[in-house]
User: What shape does this take?
Amino acid sequence: MNPRGSQAIGVNRVATGEMKLHWDVVTYIRQNLPKLKITIASLGEYQESPQQRYDAKRMGYDKGLPDLILPISNGRYNGIAIEFKSPNGLGVASQQQLAFIERFKSINYQAFISHDYDYIISMLDAYHAKIGHQCPNCIRQFKAVDKLNNHLKAIHRVDVEDDDDDSDESE
Assistant: This one.
């Protein structure tokens, strides 16, 4: 027990419910979706004391912020925001959570609330499949590497070597 009377979070802690869902989804992202490696977790549930809540608010946290934010564009959306609910299906979104989901949608995020691991993974897989090749010098994305290379040469004046494998195939 920690001084506040709650169980300390340690390496051997067993996750259940919404926390396990959150852990499982992040594990899946880290193991299978390399283009979604930037993840932001709001961690609001770890603010146990009034002082922690006060400090978090002053540092930018807002009540109702989605549990997981993935700020990577896929060409259609600017990112994904997910609010997890317990897989038992009994979790209910608060008014603040619903408002944040709408705010993220208004800035062109794919934002949703779910308690279903398979649904979340299918949404993430579909999103990940549409992520293109990001220009390292600007925000543009390209579906094909040759288009990215042309952009780098023409716009950023970067000397890019052509892929020799493509020319061998046409001979």
